């Protein structure tokens, strides 16, 4: 099945180049020239990936990213002419999955798109539920587990979102540090352990069952969301 990509870029030349490149690579491209059009198309088209320029007119990319995270957990690749570390950190902490400053090479863009689509499970949208009883509630940054809502911190919600998106796959501690805290040096591994412990405790409390936990610690590697709520693991 052809992956659909929403490309939000107000530079007409770059937008045409991106559409041509991605179409030739076999993707179904939906273009948007501004933030308001992007949000309209986002829910109408339900793409598998969002490529988002930060410097948009009227409604900028930051606002689009924030609203996107209220609607879905689909992967987001940010494009920006600004290479400042503060912008990269802001983007990742706001829920983006990757960050590519302009100018960039065609091969690098395609490689990042392929990696994001390969890693991500099918996007979930506000109101969607999993067969095992979990539902993410992006607008409240919470999760409904076994019929009961668990209110989460931003960090806990982001952790759960990443693990759910990669359900069944082990996400390493270093990957979580990079994607949740932007700690690429891996200097804060204990914070992952304690954040996951707090998240698991909240899910168990919501279910009223200490055994009702969809997360699993994989010794020496990291964590995963067990597809189907498989009770194995600790």
TrEMBL record:
Residues 125-227 form the OmpR/PhoB-type domain. Residues 4-117 form the Response regulatory domain. Pfam families: Response_reg (PF00072), Trans_reg_C (PF00486). Signal peptide: none annotated. One of its GO terms (cellular component) is protein-DNA complex. Keywords: DNA-binding, Phosphoprotein, Transcription, Transcription regulation. GO terms for molecular function: phosphorelay response regulator activity; transcription cis-regulatory region binding. Residues 125-227 bind DNA. One of its GO terms (biological process) is regulation of DNA-templated transcription. The modification 4-aspartylphosphate is found at residue 53. This is Transcriptional regulator.
């Amino acid at each position: 099945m052809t992956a659909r990509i929403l490309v939000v870029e107000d530079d007409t030349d770059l937008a045409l180049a991106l559409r041509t490149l991605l179409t030739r690579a076999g993707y179904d491209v939906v273009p948007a020239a501004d933030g308001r059009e992007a949000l309209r198309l986002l829910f109408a088209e339900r793409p598998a990936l969002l490529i988002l320029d930060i410097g948009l007119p009227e409604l900028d990319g930051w606002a689009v990213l924030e609203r996107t995270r209220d609607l879905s957990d689909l992967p987001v690749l940010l494009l920006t002419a600004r290479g400042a570390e503060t912008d990269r950190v802001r983007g990742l902490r706001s829920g983006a999955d990757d960050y590519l400053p302009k100018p960039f090479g065609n091969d690098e863009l395609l490689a990042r798109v392929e990696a994001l689509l390969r890693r991500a499970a099918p996007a979930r949208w506000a109101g969607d539920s999993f067969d095992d009883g979990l539902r993410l509630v992006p607008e409240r940054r919470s999760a409904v587990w076994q019929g009961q809502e668990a209110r989460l911190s931003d960090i806990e919600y982001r952790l759960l979102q990443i693990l759910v998106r990669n359900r069944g796959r082990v996400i390493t501690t270093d990957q979580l540090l990079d994607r949740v805290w932007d700690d690429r040096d891996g200097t804060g591994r204990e914070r992952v352990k304690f954040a996951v412990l707090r998240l698991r405790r909240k899910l168990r409390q919501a279910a009223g069952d200490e055994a009702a936990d969809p997360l699993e610690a994989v010794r020496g590697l990291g964590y995963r969301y067990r597809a189907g709520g498989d009770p194995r693991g600790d």
